[in-house]
Design goal:
This protein is mainly alpha-helical. It has one domain. Helix content is 82%, strand content 0%. The protein contains two helices and no strands. The longest helix has 71 residues. It starts with a helix and ends with a helix. The model has no long low-confidence stretch (mean pLDDT 83).
Length: 94
């Protein structure tokens, strides 16, 4: 029965040659596992980059919304001040 090279690479190197993989095959399978791990790391890195870009976009959108709200509050403060001043003028005339 043949063994899976990936699982054999995790085992001890003291293997007999009765149907078990040779040390060269074990080394090859170890390199395959390293390549798989490297691909997984690269995929995780790409996911992190995409997530960073999403958060950056959300940040800029919220900054723009914040600026709009600050301008609205400022405008409303001006309206309130004008209304107060107008009310004071009406009181002095009467």
């Amino acid at each position: 029965m043949k063994k899976n090279l990936k699982s054999c690479s995790k085992e001890s190197y003291n293997l007999s040659h009765d149907g078990n993989p040779t040390p060269e095959e074990v080394r090859t399978s170890a390199l395959m596992r390293i390549a798989d791990a490297t691909e997984t790391i690269a995929q995780s890195y790409n996911n992190l980059i995409a997530e960073r870009d999403r958060f950056k976009q959300w940040f800029y959108e919220e900054q723009a919304a914040k600026t709009v709200l600050i301008k609205k509050v400022s405008a409303l403060k001006g309206v309130i001040t004008r209304m107060k001043n107008k009310g004071e003028k009406n009181e002095t005339i009467c």
